[in-house]
Design the sequence.
C-alpha cells in the first residue's frame, strides 16, 4: 500500500512539474537568468504554489498523532549547517544553473525526449555511483545528534 501511494504521489508530482514546465530546461534557465533582459519569472508562481500546499499540509500533519501509513513520524535528526551541506548545495545549484535540470524533474523531462536529458540522467547515475564508491574514503561528518 505504501509503495502504491508513493508511486501515485510521484506521478502527481511529475505531472505537476511537466504541466508547469519546470522540467523544461530552457524555461528553468530563463528563470535563473536575471540579467540578460530575458528573465522569465513565471516559475516563482509554481514555487509559491508549492510552498502554500506544503504549508497547509504541514498544518494538517502537525495535528495528527501519527502518520496514516506508519507507526510514528520520522523527523530529521541533523539540523546543523556544515561543510557537507554547503558543498552539496553548491554542487546541486551549479549543476541546476548550468543545465536547467535537477535529478527529480529530469525523470519527468524524459517525456520531452532528446539526447541531452538522457546524457544528464546518465551523468547523474555515474555521479551517484561514483560517490558511493568513494564514500568509504571520505572523511565522516561529526554527528550533531
Sequence:
Amino acid at each position: 500500500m505504501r509503495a502504491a501511494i508513493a508511486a501515485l504521489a510521484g506521478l502527481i508530482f511529475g505531472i505537476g512539474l511537466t504541466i508547469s514546465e519546470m522540467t523544461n530546461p530552457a524555461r528553468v534557465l530563463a528563470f535563473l537568468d536575471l540579467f540578460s533582459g530575458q528573465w522569465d519569472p513565471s516559475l516563482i508562481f509554481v514555487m509559491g504554489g508549492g510552498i502554500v500546499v506544503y504549508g497547509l499540509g504541514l498544518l494538517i500533519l502537525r495535528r495528527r498523532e501519527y502518520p496514516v501509513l506508519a507507526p510514528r513520524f520520522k523527523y530529521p535528526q541533523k539540523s546543523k549547517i556544515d561543510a557537507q551541506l554547503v558543498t552539496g548545495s553548491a554542487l546541486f545549484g551549479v549543476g541546476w544553473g548550468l543545465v536547467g535540470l535537477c535529478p527529480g524533474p529530469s525523470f519527468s523531462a524524459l517525456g520531452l525526449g532528446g539526447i541531452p536529458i538522457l546524457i544528464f540522467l546518465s551523468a547523474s547515475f555515474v555521479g551517484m555511483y561514483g560517490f558511493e564508491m568513494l564514500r568509504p574514503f571520505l572523511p565522516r561528518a561529526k554527528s550533531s545528534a
Observations:
- The mean pLDDT is 83.
- The chain has six helices and no strands.
- Residues 2-137 form one domain.
